[in-house]
Predict the 3D structure of the following.
Amino acid sequence: MSQLKERFVTLLHEKNFVTDQLATVEQKTGVKREYIALGVLGFVGLYLLFGYGAALLCNLIGFAYPAYFSIKAIESSVKEDDTQWLTYWVVYGFFSIVEAFSDIFLFWFPFYYISKCFFLLWCMAPVTWNGAEIMYKRVIRPFFLKHQATMDGVVRDLSAKAKNITENVTKEGEIPTVYIC
């Protein structure tokens, strides 16, 4: 437990925007930043359990941090971080589609949004056993490899239909020119 506490304290003393803000609040209030961070985390946790708009907060948590680090990954020359965040977004998209069809039922389960938030945090965690990597390798990749030929055919057909539709709309949108002398 003390090792976890040390990692938490070390994380809170790294140099970044959030820890700078924590240092300012710590200096003005005299309350240690560890307690401030635990208070904020406790508030967010309780809000996810009982607050109005918990779905929005959960989706912001699942989007904001990964979006920021995805942009940083795109701008870096390292390939591994690109793969990590691309894997996250594939899992996030898959989860969102599954959730869209089951949200009517899942919404009624107690602690759904905090569970979803923990799942998304696990998926974006910077560890080797993060959820995105595990979900991709165990669920999404095997399904994709099994049905890849079928999906390629569907995408090819839809692309051809979309191209035909755009060509027809373009032709119909051209206005004939009539010259009156």
Q: What stands out?
A: The chain has a mean pLDDT of 85. The chain is about 80% helix and 0% strand.
